[in-house]
Structures are given as C-alpha cells and as structure tokens.
Amino acid sequence: MTDPLASWWRWPVLVARKIGDGPYGPAHATPVEVLVKITAKRKKVLAPDGSEVISEARVSMAASTELIPPGSLVTLPPEFGGRTAEVLAEQLHHDGAGRTPNFYSVDLT
Asked: Of the residues 55, 75, 80, 86, which has the maximum number of CB atoms within 10 A of its CB?
C-alpha cells in the first residue's frame, strides 16, 4: 500500500538512533536517511524525564517509521541550516476515526 502522504515527506534527513550509553557518552547507530516534513517552530515540549524543554523544530514522517528514541541525532538538510540536532521527545500520532492522517514525529533541540 502506498503512503497517501508520501508527497509530504520531501526532505531527506540523516538519523543516528541512540542505542545506549558508553564510557565516553551516548552511542549511536550508523546514520540512515529518512524522508520527512520539517516544521521550524520553537515550542515547549516535555522531555522523557518530565522536564520542560524548548524544541527548535519538529520532524514528521510516516507512522511506520522505526522509533527514534530521545538522545538520537538528526542532521537537517542544508536548506534548514544543515545542523545536527538532538531528539528531545518523540510521539506517534494516530486518529482512530481516520479523520486526520497518522504520522510519527520527533522534536529537536
């Protein structure tokens, strides 16, 4: 089945998922490319520890995307500054009634 929102997922980002903590800090998997929609907007989000943090951008993608845990790294395309940002929070958005599309998002530093 084709994703009806495939045309929304236009921007390629590199995602290095956090896989644990090592003796020298966080450990990340090899980066993979994921097509996303980028919303550059500052907002307050809840971090996994319950603290409030400021997110500089939200990256949305297909609901079927493999989970991207907080602490993962996302490198944005040059059109969005090409910076590498840390994932602060992630959320799966499902509308059981089918009125809105399902998607997965991560909020970035």
From this structure: 55
- 11-108 is a CATH 2.40.10 domain: yes
CA separation (Å) from 82 to 10, 38, 75, 89, 94? 15, 12, 6, 20, 30
Q: What is the pTM of this model?
A: 0.88
What are the φ/ψ torsions at residue 52 (nearest 5 degrees)?
A: -90, 130
**pLDDT for residue 22 is more than 80:** yes
Which of 48-57, 64-73, 74-83, 88-97 is the least confident region? 88-97
pLDDT by residue (tens digit) across 80-99?
999 999 999 999 988 777 66
With residues binned 3-state (H G I as helix, E B as strand, rest as coil), the percentages for the chain, rounded to 5, are: 5, 50, 45
How many CB atoms sit inside 10 A of residue 23's CB?
Answer: 5
Write out the DSSP string of 17-65.
-EEEEETTEEEEPPPEEEEEEEE---EEEE-TTS-EEEESEEEEEETTS
